[in-house]
From TrEMBL:
GO molecular function terms listed in the Swiss-Prot or TrEMBL record: DNA binding
Source organism: Deinococcus humi
Pfam families (alphabetical): HTH_26 (PF13443)
Record key words, sorted: DNA-binding
Record's keyword annotation contains DNA-binding: yes
HTH cro/C1-type domain segment(s): 7-78
Name recorded for this polypeptide: DNA-binding Xre family transcriptional regulator
InterPro entries: Cro/C1-type_HTH
The organism's place on the tree of life at top rank: Bacteria
Amino acid sequence: MSYTHWKLASLLAERGFSAYALAKASGISQPNTIYRIAKPGHEPKRVDLPTLTAVLDGLRKLTGEDIQIADVLEYVPDLES
């Protein structure tokens, strides 16, 4: 079965940033949203597009890099079907 999963925790770890730093940079009013997304094994199954946009904007501010959706989400196809 195909699935999509978050890569945010590994991206933050690789670049030496915390979920707290991302929460501040993203401007999200509920930092727990970022903490949930960035907690390996406990990522939410759903997130709305404004939240995803805020995560990407926050990462761009923190890293100074051209962060794209594929940097934080990964689609893994079912190769059996």
